[in-house]
Every structure is written in C-alpha cells, then in structure tokens.
Amino acid sequence: MRVSTATSRAGLFLTAGIAIFAPHQTVHAQEGQTIVLDAVTVEAESDDTLVQDGYVAKQDRLGTKVDTPIAKIPQAISVVTQDQIEDQKPRTLNEALGYTASANPNSFGFDSRYDAFFLRGFPAHYNGMFRDGLRQYNGPSAWFKTEPYGIEGVTVLKGPASSLYGISGPGGLVNVVTKRPKDEQFREVELLMGEHNRYQSAFDFSGPANENGSLLYRFTGLGRLSDTELPAYPDDKLYLAPAFTFKPDEDTKLTILGEISKSVTGGTAAFYNPSYGTISDIYEGDPAWNDFTQDQGRIGYEFEHRFNDLLTVRQNLRYNAVDADLEYSSHHSIGPDLPLQRYWGHYTEDMQNFVVDNMAQFEFDTGQVKHVAVAGIDYAWAQYDAYSALSYTSVDDIKQMPVPFIGGQEMNQVGIYLHDQMEWNDFTLFASGRYDWVDTTSTDATSTETEQDDSHFSSRVGLSYTTEWGITPYANYSTSFSPNIGFVYDDVTSDVASVARPTVAEQKEIGIKYEIPGYNAVISAALFDIDQKDGVVFDASTGINKQRQLDLNSRGFELEANASFDNGFSLIASYTNLRVKIEKGAEGTVGKELSATPNHIFALWGHYLFEGGALAGLGVGAGVRVASSSYGDDTNTFKNSSRAFVDAALSYDFGYRNPDLEGVSLQINAKNLFDEQKPICSAGYCYKDEGRSLFGSLRYRF
C-alpha cells in the first residue's frame, strides 16, 4: 500500500511547523550606521568518526577500524563530504556517488527503488553496503534505503576488504556515516519544492542536552510527497532519526543511533523491450498497481572506553529490519501481429539482521616502531522470507490473490581479525588478517531446507611512504571472500548441478596521494588489477533461470582531486579508465568485456561562493559526468552510446548582506540540466535515463 496522505502530510506539517515557530534572532544597528558582519558558518557535520574540511576528508575509521589520516592508508579511499552533499543535493545514494572515481551508479537508468551501484566494475549493492562501519545486509528485494539528508558523509574503500570486514565484494565497500550528535548547538529547518509536484520539508536539531555537556542529542527528520516523470510512480517518504551521545568522562563514550522510516516509490521502473537490445516508449507499469512500499528501522550503539595509553575497547552493535511490499507489472507478446498482453505481480519480503563488532585497540612501541593494533571478533545474523504471486488475468485478480511463501534464508557469520599498522620514520606498514565461518540455511517453497557451511581466510598487506613534500606513494595486496547460496551449473543445458563455490578475489594496487602543502587539497592516483573467481550470475538462455559461476578480471587507473580553497572555490574531479574482462563464463562471452561498463568515466564539479563585494553570499556550482560507450551485452554484439550529464546549483546566503537574515539561504539545483536521455543496456536488457529535474530549497540555520 502507498503511504497514506495523512501520514506523509503529518511529517510535512511537523517540520513546517517547526520552521514557522523557530525563534528568530535579530541584530540591530544604531541609526545612521551600516554594520557589515562576517557570515557565521554553522557546519552540519560532527567530525566524530569522519573528519572533513569542505570537500576534503582528513581522517576516517573505515580503512583501519581506528582513526587514521586518510593519506597514510595504503589503499584508495574516496569520500563524499557533508559540504558536497549540501551543494549537490543528491536525492539518493546513487546520486551521491556520481562524482566518485570508479563508482558507476548509472547501469540501470532511472530506478529510484534501489541503490544499485558498481565499484571498479563489480556490483557492490549486495555485499558492499556498510553503515557506520557495520555491514548492512540486503535481501533480494528488501534493501535498506539511504536518505541523503540523514547522513554526514560517504566513505568508499576501493578493492577487496574482507581482511577487516568479512563478507564483501572485490570492488570495495561503501560506508554511509549517520548524522551524529554535535557538542555545539545546531538547528536547521528546510523547505523544498520542485518539478513533478515535489514537496519536502526537513529539520535537523543537535547540541548539548544538559548543562555540563555530558549528554548530546540529534534529531533529524524529513517528510516528502512527490511524483516523478513516470506515471503513477511516486517518491514519498517519512524519515525520523534520533541519536544520543553520553560522555560521562573524557575516556568513555556511548552513541545511540536510530531510525524509523516509510517510503513509497513506483513498483515498476522499466520500459518494454520489443526485441533483444532495443527499448520502446511503452512504460511497463500499471497506474492501478504500481506501489513499492518499504518500512524500515534500525537501532544500535557505539561504545568506546579508553583504559589507559595502551588499551581502548569498542563495541558497535545494530539491529535493523526492512519490510518490502512490491506491486509490479509488465507486458508480454503473444504474437507478432497481436496486441501486447499484461501480467501483474505481487512480491513481499521481510528482512532482519543483527551485527555486533567487538574490538580492542592497542597502542605501543617496539624499539623505533610505533604500533596501533586492533584485535576483534564480530558476529552477524541475517534472515529473510519472501512471498510472491503472479496473475495474467487482471489487477483485481492479483489484489485478491494470496501471496504464497517462495523461499527464505538464514545466515550466521562469525569472524576473528587482527590488524596492525606500524610506523617507522616515514614508512607505514599495514597488515591485516581475518578468518570467517559462515553457516547458511536456505528454505525453498516446499519448506525443504538446505544447509551450507563456508569458511575462509582473508588478508591485506600495504606499505606507504610519506615524503616531506606531502607526497605519499603506496602499494597493497588484499583479498575478499563472499559465500554463495544454492546450486550452480557448469552447463546450463544439463541437470548436473553442484554446490555454489564462494566468490573470492585478490587485488594488486599501487598508488600515490598528494596533500598539497599550504592548501586544503588532495590529489590521488591508483593502478589496480583485480582477479575474481567464481562470481555468481543467472543464465536464462534455456528459458529457465539457472545460476552459473564466472571469473572476471578488472584492470584500471583512477585519478581523483578534492579541494576547498580559502577563496570560496571548491572542486571535485575524477577520471576512471576501466576494463572488466570475462575470463570464464557462458559460451561466447569468454575474453569479452562486461556489459554496461564504460572504459572511460570522467566527472568534474566546481562550486564558488562569493565572499566579498556586491555578489557576497552568491554561490554558483556546475558539474559534468561523462561516460564513454560500453557494450550492451556480455557477448559484445552491440554498444551503448556515450553519455554526458550536466548538473548545476545556484544559491544565495542572505546573511552576507543582512544580519537580520543570518542563517537563511536559498538554493536551486538542476540534475541533468540539458535533459540528456539515452537507453542504457546491461546483459541485453535496456533501460532509460532520467530526464531533467529542477528543485529549489529554502534553509534556515540558527
């Protein structure tokens, strides 16, 4: 069912009411005098686990599980900062990753139902999603959705990372950092309106909850009602996220992070493909049956206690659940000269998971070598149950039809790990090792259970050297591990099957990071070579979906720059050269390139804030995302054309000219400004890009 209008409008009225009744602070000048005040910059980020300055990230925990300067980590890391999120106003996690090197969120055209993206050519949306350093398990359709307004950054760790995080993919991890309580008062309300009847209001309050500052709070919320360019395809949401931090002393901290949200998007985002590799203008969705409703919630905490200079212990824990209800439809042909027929589907899924990570951090010296070591054990449990029904009769038929159980899974994972980062003079050596045990029970539609046990050792070793000029060359070798469920067929035309083997991968990477002396700017470059063995794909060449396993090799070069200068100019630039080759796969694909994987991706975004003169307070931003041509299927029989998307932003901070309006800003954003829409085909099936989208927002920080 779609989110009720009353429920969604309650969220909108709640935040709008906060905006109306928020206290207004006024500064008056004496008669006959003009007072020009510097604008006060109030930052939304907490700088707790992710330290950032403008578009440049300084320090993070993702690469090491301890607070470490990003420049010293001998592995490629990209960060989407709070300022970038505010300037670009992404509507989804996919949009937030659009300017990140080696991230490809555009393989399936417009589809806001899921955050589906690739890292270094490998899908990362199932086994590469993390939140606050803990893995976020997705079911087949019940995916945890990220609300960009509720986060203060996104960290992308490139390449295999199982040596610290267990089950994960070859391309890397995407870690979403939740907004956390600030130790200074922060209050924000925002109203947004845009094309396709988009109405949104949001609020974000944080600060000390008591006099001595030992208890901090943050409460973030958003309500939205919106249509999209597709008929009967909404984009509605109600999002509430409370957070608290308790710091009884300087050595102890407990942070509690929660969320409850409800979203409704369209159930069908596809257009009818009349033949292989072609797409029509016939939208597959049925306005009478096209809601994808998702309820999700999470609750967890991060606890840290420092015993002494040697030992600090941490425990991070989270439980989250997602209930998905998908109404969808599609067309099918019954003959070349006969009208298309429609069918309707109803799919529901309940996904739950629990993750706890226990670690001890040791800081000590052995001679001239300084150590920061981490030893830990984590446990993860995940379970989902799926139900599905299909009707070729009518909408009324599918509405009344029972939705039978079709299968489910339960997984238990235990991992132990050890990481040591050693510094000697200007050298930094990282060594990580981890062993995982994974037990999985799969249940089919007949309630027959199949059990599978997997175990694996993962490792990483990396070395970096920091020069006096701010240049840090590095090299690393790392591995990944991900178990697979069910049976696979080496020959899909036969009935001979075997238990799916775990997907494993190894990476060799060399790179360089350059922190430009005297400037808040970083340039990085990396060369990588990743071999993946036994990845799982579905093969429908026989008319029946059967799993088969394939091997891939990904080679590439990344170049990325992030800067925020003192003159108000900020910059993001990235270039990716990538070739993903099928080493073992279906007949006709061996030696070919993976579909929907451009060899060249370039992105450039610049933002300038006028801080003086007649234009003081005016902000102008523009960006372009360019992808070269790619193959439309894995046999490389046809190509997708190259594409370029232009984004823009225009803002004005009224506080620069009028002290009475300090904290008030107006912003307009455009996505795909020139309305570039082309088909994009992956594995032979074609999708459509989203057209131009415009919206404006009014924000008040006080």
Q: Overview of this structure, please?
A:
- With 702 residues, this protein is mainly β.
- Helices cover 5% and strands 55% of the residues.
- The chain has a 22-stranded antiparallel β-barrel. It has a five-stranded mixed β-sheet with strand order 4-10-11-8-9. Strands 1-2-3 form a three-stranded antiparallel β-sheet, with no helix packed on it.
- A hairpin with a 6-residue loop joins strand 28 and strand 29.
- The longest helix is centred in the first third of the chain and has 17 residues.
- The chain starts with a helix and ends with a strand.
Keywords for this entry:
about 700 residues; mainly beta; Maltoporin, Chain A; 22-stranded antiparallel barrel; five-stranded mixed beta sheet; 5 helices; 39 strands; about 5% helix; disordered N terminus
Name given to the CATH homologous superfamily: TonB-dependent receptor, beta-barrel domain
Q: Quote the CATH topology.
A: Maltoporin, Chain A
Instruction: Estimate what percentage of residues fall within beta strands.
Output: over 45%
**In the CATH classification, which architecture applies?**
Beta Barrel
Main β sheet profile: 22 strands, antiparallel, barrel
List how many beta strands DSSP finds: 39
User: Any idea of the CATH class?
Assistant: Mainly Beta
What is the straight-line distance between the termini?
A: 38 Å
Q: What is the global morphology?
A: globular
Query: How many discrete domains?
Result: 1
Quaternary structure classification: single chain
Q: How many helices in DSSP terms?
A: 5
Low-confidence stretches: 1-37
Instruction: Report the helical percentage.
Output: under 10%
Radius of gyration: 25 Å
Mean pLDDT across all residues, rounded?
Answer: 92
Estimated structural class: mainly beta
